[in-house]
Amino acid sequence: MGVPTGTSYANTLYDRDFQLVVKASCVGPMSEWTGNELAKIGAADELEITSFRNDGTTRAYTTIWVVRVGDEFYVRSWHGRAAGWFRRALQQHAGRIQAGGVQRDVIFEEPDENVRGAIDEAYLSKYGRYGNTYVQPMIDAEAAEATFRLVPR
């Protein structure tokens, strides 16, 4: 089995339970977003997201909205925790994103509840021009419970 090249765990030996290696690798030092990445991803209307399969390959990308709160990026599932991309991301906790000309491997981390208000406000501010029909579902409880903070690798 292979794992994603260019990652800190690319040469790690592991058994069939790849997600345990990925989760264990999350404990180590993380990278930070560069100023360029913060600007480009933050300005992008949409982000493409995928998770890694057990063999380390990526799945097809799903296009979603992304918001920036401070120097962090957050994504939510319009269809809550039942959405396929979200369920798969929960299994592996690792994947890849593309937005604004930036591609980056990330860890999917469920944020603390105390940032929900700031994330809601970011969705309202950034996507309010699309109207309540599209924005309200992104700040309702179902989507808020399906939120990831994107941690760069």
- Sequence of strands across the biggest β-sheet: 2-1-5-6-7-4-3
CATH superfamily: Electron Transport, Fmn-binding Protein, Chain A
The CATH topology name reads Pnp Oxidase, Chain A
**Which structural class matches the secondary elements?**
alpha+beta
Describe the 3D structure.
- The protein is 33% helix and 24% strand.
- The protein is α+β, with helices and mostly antiparallel strands and 153 residues long.
- It has a single domain (18-152), classed as Pnp Oxidase, Chain A (Roll), CATH 2.30.110.
- Strands 2-1-5-6-7-4-3 form a seven-stranded antiparallel sheet.
In short:
By secondary structure, the chain is an alpha+beta fold. It has helices at residues 18-25, 35-43, 84-92, 116-127, 132-139, 141-144; strands spanning 47-51, 62-64, 66-69, 72-76, 94-99, 102-109, 147-152. The two termini are 21 Å apart.
Q: Any key phrases for this structure?
A:
single chain; 153 residues; alpha+beta; Pnp Oxidase, Chain A; seven-stranded antiparallel sheet; 6 helices; 7 strands; globular
SSE blueprint and pairings:
Layout: H1 18-25, H2 35-43, E1 47-51, E2 62-64, E3 66-69, E4 72-76, H3 84-92, E5 94-99, E6 102-109, H4 116-127, H5 132-139, H6 141-144, E7 147-152
Antiparallel strand pairs: 1-2, 1-5, 3-4, 4-7, 5-6, 6-7
